[in-house]
Amino acid sequence: MSIFKRFGGRLAAISAVAATACGTAPAAEPAPANPALWKVADHDTTVYLFGTIHLLPKDTNWRSNAFDKAAAGADTLVVETVIDESNPAATMSELLQLAVSPGLPPIAERVPPEKRAALQALIAKSGIPASMYDRLETWAAAFMLLGVQFKELGLDPGSGVESALKKQFTDSKKVIGQLETNAEQLGFFDRLSEEAQRKFLVAMLDGAGDMNREFKGMLDAWTRGDVKAIAQSFNSDLSDAEELRDALLTQRNANWANWVKGRLDQPGTVLVAVGAGHLAGEQSLQSMLEKQGVKVTRVQ
Fold first, then answer.
1. Which of 140, 204, 210, 297 could make an SS bond with 136 (beta carbons 3.0 to 4.6 A apart)?
2. What is the residue extent of each domain of the chain?
3. What are phi and psi of 247, to 5 degrees?
4. Largest pairwise CA distance in the chain
5. Are the beta carbons of 195 and 247 closer than 8 angstroms?
6. CA 276, CA 280: separation in Å to the nearest integer?
7. Is the pLDDT reported for residue 260 higher than 50?
8. 116-126 and 138-152 helices cross at what angle (nearest 10)?
9. What does each C-alpha distance from 177 to 55, 286, 290 come to in angstroms?
């Protein structure tokens, strides 16, 4: 099962810190971009909802006239969590505060015997001693190793959608907010059962050979604004992982729907940029808003 299909872009932003702490793929071919964009509005408030991919190959073309107009007109940007790419040590410190625990079994014992060679090979690529992974909770070890795979794919944190938007809003002296703190986002993984954490680690190892193909499919669907394909690419394999789906998708979308609905009580224009998987499928953020009686209109 592919780690990209299971987790989509949700891990990419923080996993990029691991890649920074531990090859470059060809840039995407220029093509007309049409990523999906929605809005929620009342008489004095507009909230745009934009699905992102957190890490992209350098020079990926993803902006459109409609999106640029919406972004230019927004006075506030809200992302999942604000990560300071210029100071990866700070985010790594938050991860390690949650992730280092005494008395854990060696990391090799936390995967089936037939997966241990692949695990050992990836640990060697990371340049971090296996003894360090032995001290990490399983979810955090998977994070560190996923960061290595993102780096091999040539995904550049500085070329991600959120990085570009944060720079744009910072340069314009506009407000940047977040839906979750780094610690809160990491906490979703830290609270997973050990069984779910081990599924996460094994899924990451299983998907290593297909990551380039899977990512290209995700990127193509996202760039076209094909929400059905996005739901398939980003979320389909979560159907057999209820604990992971609830922690990473359903609970967070419910929290964010409450936030968006509450934000309508405050005047202004807000651009909310979150992983594209949150805006696709039956448990999408838009679906949860509509269940609360909030009208959501697709504008691109």
1. 140
2. 3-30+48-244+252-298
3. -70, -40
4. 60
5. no
6. 7
7. yes
8. 70
9. 19, 20, 24
